[in-house]
Amino acid sequence: MTVAPTPTWPTCGQSDCRGVLVRERGRCLAHVSAADRQIALLSVTAGSRADFRGVPLTSELIVELRRWTHGVLYDARFDQAVFSGDANFRGFVFSGRADFRDASFQGAANFERACFRGGAEFGRAVFEEDAGFDGVSFEAAVDFSRAQFRGALAMNGAYVTGSLDLSRARCSGPVEGMVFCTEEVRLRGAQLEQPVRLQLAVPRLHCREVTFLASSELLVQRAEVDLTDANLAARLSLFQHYGLFRLPDGSHMDEVWLRRRLSGFRMSELVSVRGADLSYLTLVDMSLRRCVFFGAHHLDQIRISGECYFASPRRSWGVHGGIPLRWAKRRAIADEHLLRRTVEYRARNREAWAEVTDDLPGTVMEPAHVAQLYRQLRKALEDNKDEPGAADFYYGEMEMRRLDRTETTRAERWLLHAYWLLSGYGLRASRALAWLLLAMCATMVLMLGLGLPDQSPDQTVSGNLPRGGGHVTLEIDKPSPALTLPLADRFSSERFEKTLRIVLNSVIFRSSGQELTMWGTYIEMVSRFIEPVLLGLAVLAMRGRIKRG
């Protein structure tokens, strides 16, 4: 139970009433005579501050307030006010600041189409029944921090010039809203016990330490979303919102208002899930270019669908071990960018990993940690039948294992280096085909120069025939293949055709049946081992890119 703070103003005192005294009347607005109340309300219409701190306000008193003020209030103080019935502020205009801190709304609270031209404070307010803010306009920051909504909360068609703060708020009923906000929406530490459906156009959405206890949907536009330490006890779907915001009555929110305050369109992005349990998180069409996954729990159960973008290395050329290499396009998580831009693990061409900004929140980790993140993300995409996406994460996992000097042995690192160099871990078909072509060319040159004899040797039969007949013994001899041609004559078109048949048979692991020199025999044996492996790696890489589950 929330205990209201001790009043700092002179109170009415009638029946323990906390209402502020009406000047020179000795009672609050609720307990003065009708004539004195009329005089007090007339003073409010003259433009003075409306002071209703701690006053118990009935529905009838609010109707009377509307009649005398025509629904226009200047600086309005409703701190610790108690609204015993329905509080109908529909269409009210608050020209200055409106302060409802620690107020208690015991009936329904209706602020539909109200306009707050100064700041609005609802901190620690308690709404016992439904709270309606449909069509409301906040022309400055609005604060609902630590407020309690025990009924439904509706904010369809709300416009906020500034920030919307719901930090530490507790919503026991369903929450529905469609909000345009120019700065940020803060849900830090909020507890949302019933389904939530919010459509937000806002630069920043802070959901740190928020608790979702029922299936919820967040549809965001232009937003940076932070889910650090979020507690997702039920399904949360985070969508990129396209198109217009359609209100329940079929009309649309004012896109001109939004464009004037938020220049350009950019894709919504998730920037951090550290410390969050992602078992129930679904991401659709979100940018994950700057998302830090390190420290997240159950990452292998996340659902990623639609067009979710990751931070790819910039396509550029670099030199490694004297060999020019080109960074290929692939999905890479922000954690790898952070790792590669450190002093110990930075790439030869650091610019390829400069897409993620230096102010990215995160902790520098070891390659083994990033490999684990890739492994879990790969499993998540495989479970979603996204084989090409999973292949990119497999590549990232292998890269981190190749860089790791703590959990990967030297022998494993050498094998991984060879696997990467030959075929990009079985995922780069062009690399495997290039090596296959190079191996075939080398085999042909060696065969022409060393392996193919002058000509296939003929068999010879020798023996003695007895004069009187009888048993005959014959010896069949076949000389060893020899290569005696001058070097220039070894590279002829006829020999090239024979060599080509030998090499093509080697690729498919078949023997050509061609007589070869001793060198040629060993060359063929080696090629029959290497070239089918390279062909298999190329086929495997193409299958990994084409397969869709």
Index terms:
rod-shaped; single chain; 28% helix; 37 strands; alpha/beta; 10-stranded parallel sheet; 549 residues
Overview of this protein structure:
The protein has 549 residues and is an alpha/beta fold. Helix content is 28%, strand content 21%. The protein is rod-shaped. It is built from 10 helices and 37 strands. Strands 3, 6, 7, 10, 11, 14, 15, 18, 21, 24, 27, 30, 32 and 33 form a 14-stranded parallel β-sheet that branches. A 10-stranded parallel β-sheet has the order 1-4-8-12-16-19-22-25-28-31, with no helix packed on it. Keywords: Membrane, Transmembrane, Transmembrane helix. Pfam families: Pentapeptide_3.
Helices and strands, with pairings:
Blueprint: H1 34-45, E1 50-51, E2 56-57, H2 59-69, E3 72-73, E4 76-77, E5 82-83, E6 87-88, E7 93-94, E8 98-99, E9 104-105, E10 109-110, E11 115-116, E12 120-121, E13 126-127, E14 131-132, E15 137-138, E16 142-143, E17 148-149, E18 153-160, E19 163-165, E20 170-171, E21 175-181, E22 184-186, E23 191-192, E24 196-201, E25 204-206, E26 211-212, E27 216-221, E28 224-226, E29 231-232, E30 236-240, H3 255-261, E31 269-272, E32 281-284, E33 303-305, E34 317-320, E35 323-326, H4 334-340, H5 367-383, H6 387-403, H7 410-423, H8 429-451, E36 460-464, E37 473-477, H9 493-507, H10 518-546
Parallel strand pairs: 1-4, 2-5, 3-7, 4-8, 5-9, 6-10, 7-11, 8-12, 9-13, 10-14, 11-15, 12-16, 13-17, 14-18, 15-18, 16-19, 17-20, 18-21, 19-22, 20-23, 21-24, 22-25, 23-26, 24-27, 25-28, 26-29, 27-30, 28-31, 30-32, 32-33
Antiparallel strand pairs: 34-35, 36-37
